[in-house]
Amino acid sequence: SNKAVVSTQSTGNYFKEEEIANYLKYLLYWKDPKYAKFIKYPQCLQLLELLQEPRFRNELVNVPCTRFIQLQQMQHWSHHFRRRANLVNNSAVKKEGEDKQEPKSQT
């Protein structure tokens, strides 16, 4: 979900509408593994869970709240991509080391 859209829509009482609450409930099908595997940013499922709660939706009108969510999401992505890059790099170095240690067969 786009944080700017969420913030803008919540300001106009968008999340207080029953139809929106029902639609958010409907979107929970994305948690099913057969659909979830297509999600690029899985933390959106946690946000979808939070959006099920009226109290959370009501808090989205507060700019500090939406900024905090935005900051937490950015920190998560930053940490995730750094960690993933380190894992890939370490895996490549390990593989390279293993290739050098393999004895060559003498035929």
Word description of this protein:
This protein has 107 residues and is mostly helical. Helices cover 71% and strands 0% of the residues. The chain is built from six helices and no strands. The termini are far apart. The model has no long low-confidence stretch (mean pLDDT 80).
Molecular shape: elongated
- In terms of DSSP E residues, the strand content is under 5%
Alpha-carbon distance between the termini?
60 Å
The H-and-E topology, N to C, reads as HHHHHH
Report the strand count: 0
Largest sheet: none
Q: Structural class, please?
A: mainly alpha
- Number of contiguous helices: 6
**Which runs of at least 5 residues are low in confidence (pLDDT < 50)?**
none
Q: Whole-number average pLDDT?
A: 80
Q: Return Rg in Å.
A: 21 Å
List the helices and strands and how they pair.
Layout: H1 3-11, H2 18-26, H3 33-36, H4 43-51, H5 54-59, H6 63-101
Keywords:
107 residues, mainly alpha, 71% helix, single chain, 6 helices
Short overview:
71% of the residues lie in helices and 0% in strands. It is built from six helices and no strands. The longest helix is centred in the C-terminal third of the chain and has 39 residues, at 63-101.
